[in-house]
Amino acid sequence: MTTPTDCHFSESHEWYRIEGDIVTVGITQFAANELTDITYVEMQDDGTSIDKGESLGEVESVKTTSDVSSAFVGEIVESNPAVVVDPSLLNSDPYGTGWLCKIKVVNASAENLMDQSTYDSKYSV
Amino acid sequence: MTNHPSRGDRPVEPLVFEKHVAGAYGVDFPPLDVPETPVPHRVAGSGVPLPSIGQHDVMAHYTHLSDRNFSVDGNFYPLGSCTMKHNPRINEWAASLPGFSCLHPLQDEDCIQGALRLLYETRTMLEEISGLHEVSLQPAAGAHGEFTALKVIRAFFTDHGQPQRTVVLAPDTAHGTNPASCTMCGASVKQVRTIDGHTDLEHLQEVIAEVGPENVAAFMITNPSTAGLFDPSIKEMAEIVHGAGAKVYLDGANMNALLGRVKPGDFGADAMHYNTHKTFSTPHGGGGPGSGPIAVTEELAPYLPVPQVMMADDGSFYLDRDREKSIGKVRSFFGQFGVLVRCWTYISACGPEGLRHVAETAVLNANYLAVRLQEVYDMPYFAPEKGAFCAHEFVSVPQTLLDKGVTLIDIAKRMIDYGVHPPTMHWPIHDCLMVEPTETESKHALDQFVDVMLQIANEIDQEIACVKNAPLVSDIARADEVGAARKPVLVWND
């Protein structure tokens, strides 16, 4: 799967799609591959305030459990119920139906994040 | 019936439910000596769906299962961070003495003086080993010890007019229990970066400045760290934390490397827990039994839980339940008494010199294995030529082998074929094996382990299929872990 060009990426392998003051978050294909089969997803409740670097939730695979951290300050406004029912969506479609949550952010600036070509050159799948 | 066919010479053992025979029973109840009264339906419901089986069939079932046990008694068990050492049989002898095992916790203090003396002596021995002022034996296991000590620290700060200190710092290699205990205590956790397995002091200072020194309650550190390294800058770290007015908490999971050599109180710890089941040898695993005494400084001691075991002026022993500032009770009765008997026995049998040898040999054994394996199993932190030795365990990221087309799980599964319990995996860093041989393995056993690991490396070059398909000779092949995690079947349904 190709890495989408309309997203920004963190060193800890989250992707962020910025649309106005709403940012959709997921984990990258690279992260999903490294985690191997994802078996469980639990996100913070809607309405939770999030600071930069704080955990939005966690993703568990047969190998390990990882925090999903936020590069933005804001509030979780929606999380994806489909991935809770079927965590394998994170493996099969991480940039699409496997999205994790949406944050209403205070400042949607993507500084300190990588664009697609930088991320791909660092972490090729 | 059970889905996996057996591959060994033993048939697959069915579930005990599959052995149900209607009307069978295993024991005769004694004749009723009270009037017969029906059990109310709200209590009995429609009955408990337990299988009916004869006594011999029950014995056979559990004997077959026990034959399949993998245990430290029969095999090498280098599970990093878990300290799976030999459990001397004298511990079991002591714990099963009727004077201990038949006690009732509600007996009067004057007829349990021996038990109280044992608790008191365990308390003082653990105080001595920690270099700290006072020990509470109450917590039931390590994580419970963390929780209790954090409560104590919280009570101290509240009592000293600083209730806002609710942030706890922990390195990114911390045991998972550390952040969990903080959350249980209502504290928030901030991660501190590590570099090459050591806490990054600059980042520690940055994080303290970021959250505000006046908001930091404690820094939780494991030393030797979970990467198997003794952190030589521990005193500097403690100075930074104390400079912020906060406390240093030592996760004592790795005390096996320090016994008799280093006292945590000397390097600046204000509070710590022991895992006596690990360090002082009680058979453990699969959830218990543990025991997690905590040791604290004099200023934290008034807040320890009750009851506390004390010695009176006349040399008798009693339980002090009247401590004004105590956080209260954290467990029923006196803590994990049976495990503490084993702890007392182990410490007493070893003596001070013996405990020192435990730590020295544990560290020597780990370094011996690391030296013998390092050419084949890459080790990110181990460089003895530069003075970078490991403590009582070491981490390998066997990238050279992984690049040949196997996964870490393949290597681990192949170890099962050779009768070795796979080490801790993927923690504290990605794609790593964490090996803790402990002091009780002989050189012969260590050499055998090296042979196994080199053999597996050789197989990856010569006949990779046997590694990729391992285990080949265990009763059951690889279980469907993904299926089990995604669609668990936890209730018997026929």
Summarize the structure.
The complex is a heterodimer of chains A (about 120) and B (about 500). Chain A has about 120 residues and is an alpha+beta fold.
What does this 3D model show about the protein?
- The complex is a heterodimer of chains A (125) and B (494).
- By secondary structure, chain A is of the alpha+beta class.
- Chain A has a single domain, classed as Beta Barrel (OB fold (Dihydrolipoamide Acetyltransferase, E2P)).
- Helices cover 18% and strands 36% of the residues of chain A.
- In chain A, the strands form 2 sheets. Chain A has a 6-stranded antiparallel β-sheet.
- Chain A is globular.
- The model of chain A has no long low-confidence stretch (mean pLDDT 94).
- With 494 residues, chain B is α/β, with parallel strands linked by helices.
- Helices cover 36% and strands 11% of the residues of chain B.
- Chain B contains 16 helices and 14 strands.
- In chain B, the strands form 4 sheets. Chain B has a 7-stranded mixed β-sheet, sandwiched between helices. A 3-stranded antiparallel β-sheet of chain B has the order 12-14-13, covered by helices on one side.
- At the A-B interface, loops of A face α16 of B.
Write the layout of secondary structure elements.
The complex is a heterodimer of chains A (125) and B (494).
Chain A: E1 8-9, E2 14-19, E3 22-27, H1 29-35, E4 38-43, E5 49-50, E6 55-61, E7 65-69, E8 74-79, H2 81-85, H3 89-92, E9 101-105, H4 116-122
Antiparallel strand pairs in A: 1-2, 2-3, 3-9, 4-6, 5-8, 6-7, 8-9
Chain B: H1 41-44, H2 55-67, H3 89-95, H4 98-101, H5 113-130, E1 134-136, H6 142-159, E2 167-171, H7 177-184, E3 188-192, E4 194-195, E5 198-199, H8 201-211, E6 216-222, H9 234-243, E7 247-252, E8 271-274, H10 276-279, E9 294-296, E10 308-311, E11 317-320, H11 337-373, E12 394-396, H12 399-402, H13 408-417, E13 424-425, E14 433-435, H14 443-462, H15 464-468, H16 481-486
Parallel strand pairs in B: 2-3, 2-6, 6-7, 7-8
Antiparallel strand pairs in B: 1-9, 4-5, 8-9, 10-11, 12-14, 13-14
Helix pairs in contact in B: 3-11, 5-11, 6-7, 8-9, 11-14
